[in-house]
């Protein structure tokens, strides 16, 4: 905690107050009254995102409505060297939208219009503040939907999805945000408007579109996004399998993929997660199981029928004690209900929990599950595992009580160890939640100094003054050399 | 031509000769005898790539065998400020591997080993000089293949595919190189070894992997590539449809995609291309047709059966005068035979031809085909159209005779006009052949000065001294301001 938790400058610090007053005057010159928030109670709701352990009051908050306003805000901040943190719905889990006491918080909440939806070309052109699910809702009447579906999809915005390269249950088959965005427009720190990508399949020049997606608000502020829409599959069916052993379930995942099947979703929960979910939503899960797999298949009628049979056989052959197949859509949704409410369910059985996000090659699943259980024992902290098993994206939930002395610190240390275990087996420290402020130390484990230097050089190519979301995503060499000296830290030399 | 054709420095220029001698001495310090080529007749085979209208002798050629040798070569060139052009098989069509008289040509031909093939994880780790088709050949015994299939796949290498982000007939369904590469290792201009991506689904930090793919050898030298392998589909079947009108065929393409079908390939040829192909390989094409569509479907038996019926109905409804369905694999391959030999077939009926590569939104197909015909008329040059219709990637072939005064110049001008037409309808100037030296002027039409500045900044973040493949891909502001003053040039302000 001590390494990460930022220093706080009081909101009423005289120097900050003077800077704030000057900026507000300049901003009101081109922004309407309601687009600048400057009082403590007004800026308070923006002090944190979904990683609420970290909080900081921003210098002030701006809520522009037009691209031109965003350009003028960034130009002003550039002239005056004021840092800027952009924010969508604030559902991020790695602190990417944590403000700076001395910086502006730029909310894109008012960029909430769908500008174009072309069912023939199967694209939607939207503003960044449009909610993920709102795109699908607008596309449904045309038999289309937007595939990436983070669990926060009711609330999270497409701009935030671009910043974090968000995934979801369906990304195993349909890809991450980067695979579903065709083009975007952003404003550079100097206030220039830049278009990346195109509605055509490929684009000339360096692939800055893919570079930009997942760059966590550090390269520019997105003001428009063009996404691909997909046709709704003819049929979807789910299987639920119970196991007496977590590693067996891990091996079943490998067997399904090896058989040439790409499920629309392939999710796993371990004993503590099953118990918590069942107590909460009564989905009818077998509560004596050590692990549960949920496998959803979609496609044509025939294809789904064949694959359901095949998966059922694979699950039984891999040692499942019970396999259920959904007989209708209501049952399919019930299978998912427990999984989808696993996070709040765990929230009910523990004062606090900390959601991790590591990604590993699928073959390492059994080993990582075993080592995580050992680490949980070592630290005396319960860990519930809920994850996108098909693509090796783990979400271990560490249960703790922040009122107990040291528990938050031990939790963070255990979390760090789990992430470093992911790196050690050839995986990465984030699947879909981003690095933000949360995993900045583990970046020192994931990457060599040369690799980190390359990241900084790319950052400087977009934002030479370092004004966009400073302190997030890419650690400084100094932070890394400090972190590498800690006794618990892994290393990559 | 005059704007592009580079100045030539004679191979025996005294200053070049002195630099060459010094470099050879230094290189022989750590490279074996056969890894350095310095005589005219030795370097001559490297004077051009597939865009043979442009030729330049390199200062010398190096053929390293190990990663360490590549690092030492780049370090030496960095110390002495010698430019480096990397080369795979030299099949590129945009002059990306055209050497510099004052620079080293670095051939990766000896990096031709498949390092690992894991059928369970469905990945192959290969050296960059491995041929595209060799990966599929190695994977076939496991029921797997590597999806991107440029028409040069017998010869072209995966390193070159990474440089150009190559596509092929199957990229409509299975994506470009960027969608099929999981990780790579490259050597920076300073000789550092950097890994990008991972075998896991996502990677932390900026997405430099996607940025690197398609960067045309300007950001680093690739020394290892990890690719995804896909299971061979159970069944593939093709349909051949003839049309009396090119625009009708264009609309049929839109209708197939709008119906929710993603063919494994959806290709189109116009009258002149059909005629040339039929005269050459006698595939049995209806030679009186104004346009031909070839649509391949793959997947499970049932899925293909259903889609073949659906596509057949769509083709007939869209005005096809004839629709054939392949009854077996031999017939399917015969359908493809004419398409696959279209380029050499056109080569037989014209002394020279120039292959373009633009990409447009599918809805613009009919309009672009009509405007291309008008331009062909205006310039008095025949144009045969052969292209990946499903993803809007056009390959107009301009037929000319370089022995006629002015014909090459007029051809290049017509080519430029066609590319600018692609930009005007919302497309891009390259689909899969890259920019290289060929399309550098059209980059000024595609991008604004601000966007080009951003490209240069990214280039500088990888290669601050500009030693890797200088003069390719991204035009300088000066070249663009000169080009924009030409009377025929389009513009993007």
From TrEMBL, chains A, B:
Signal peptide: none annotated. Residues 54-232 form the FAD-binding PCMH-type domain. Its cofactor is FAD. It comes from the Bacteria. GO terms for molecular function: FAD binding; oxidoreductase activity. Keywords: FAD, Flavoprotein, Oxidoreductase. The keyword Oxidoreductase applies. Gene3D superfamilies: 3.30.465.10, 3.30.70.2740, Vanillyl-alcohol Oxidase, Chain A, domain 4 (1.10.45.10). PANTHER family: GLYCOLATE OXIDASE SUBUNIT GLCD. Belongs to the FAD-binding oxidoreductase/transferase type 4 family. This is Glycolate oxidase.
